[in-house]
Design goal:
Structural class: alpha+beta
Number of helices: 5
Oligomer: single chain
Largest sheet: 6 strands, antiparallel
Order of helices and strands: HHHEEEHEEEH
Shape: elongated
């Protein structure tokens, strides 16, 4: 997975930065040792020299110390920049780990139940909490009428949302083409009655679209989409579609089984005399 490869790369970069810091520390210790020996040599030379000799030695000592200070300043600035870069990369790794955890939890939740209504509730929670959508709806295909029916919604009543026909408007075209739609202005408000969302994600099983997630407004703190948002959209397009389709089939089979069992129970009843 691409995100795992990026984490491995960041980990290698972290080790390189750590090694550079270790090398810098060793250099400082060596430099400190050299300065101490240099100081001892200068003190011995001063003790053996007269007044003029002492002045020259002090002058040389000052020049050496100034050069050493400049050298250490340069090294310090370099290490400080590397530390800042390391801090940024560390934050990126932490964020990537959190994103992977969110994706895993979302995927696990979608396949944790075969109850149709529970699957819809999980999809709503994912879109609210992880994507940051304020108003949106889940549409599913009605094979009899060849229309998309709103089956769940957040921030608006599903009864207020009109049906959508395949090939008509944004929702219909996304269903027909199987390609996600993203508005150029993510901060705009979609028009629910006209069927004009700012984001529309197809729910696909392979190339067959069974429905869409139509987002009309994001929370005010959600300024734009990140890489993990697009990963979530891809996850929803596939995993949510599979979870919905499976739970729907299970619910229908359970209903048929119950009906059949009731019919068999009626046949088993003894006729009254």
């Amino acid at each position: 997975m691409e995100s795992k490869a990026s984490i491995g790369k960041m980990a290698d970069e972290f080790l390189q930065v750590f090694k550079k810091g270790e090398e810098f520390t060793k250099e400082l210790l060596k430099e400190n040792e050299r300065l101490r020996f240099r100081l001892v040599e200068l003190e011995e030379s001063v003790n053996r020299s007269g007044g003029e000799g002492r002045a020259k030695l002090f002058q040389h000592r000052i020049e050496d110390l100034e050069a050493e200070i400049e050298f250490l300043k340069d090294k310090f600035i370099k290490v400080e920049e590397e530390n800042k870069d390391f801090a940024v990369r560390y934050v990126e790794v932490e964020e990537e780990n959190n994103n992977l955890a969110n994706l895993y939890v979302a995927s696990y939740q979608l396949h944790s139940t075969l109850d149709f209504n529970e699957v819809l509730r999980i999809i709503l929670e994912i879109v609210i909490n992880l994507v940051g959508a304020e108003k949106f709806a889940v549409f599913l295909m009605d094979e009899k009428t060849n229309e998309l029916l709103p089956v769940a919604a957040e921030g608006v009543s599903a009864a207020e949302i009109p049906r959508a026909k395949i090939g008509e408007g944004i929702i219909g075209n996304v269903t027909k083409d199987g390609e996600s739609y993203f508005s150029q202005d993510m901060n705009a408000k979609g028009d629910i009655l006209k069927g004009e969302p700012i984001v529309c994600i197809p729910l696909k099983i392979k190339e067959h679209v069974i429905g869409v997630i139509s987002i009309y407004a994001l929370f005010i703190q959600k300024k734009n989409f990140t890489n993990v948002d697009y990963e979530l959209f891809n996850l929803l397009a596939g995993h949510a579609a599979t979870a919905v389709f499976s739970s729907r089939l299970y619910t229908q089979s359970e209903r048929k089984l119950t009906t059949l069992q009731s019919f068999l129970d009626l046949l088993k009843e003894k006729p009254k005399r």
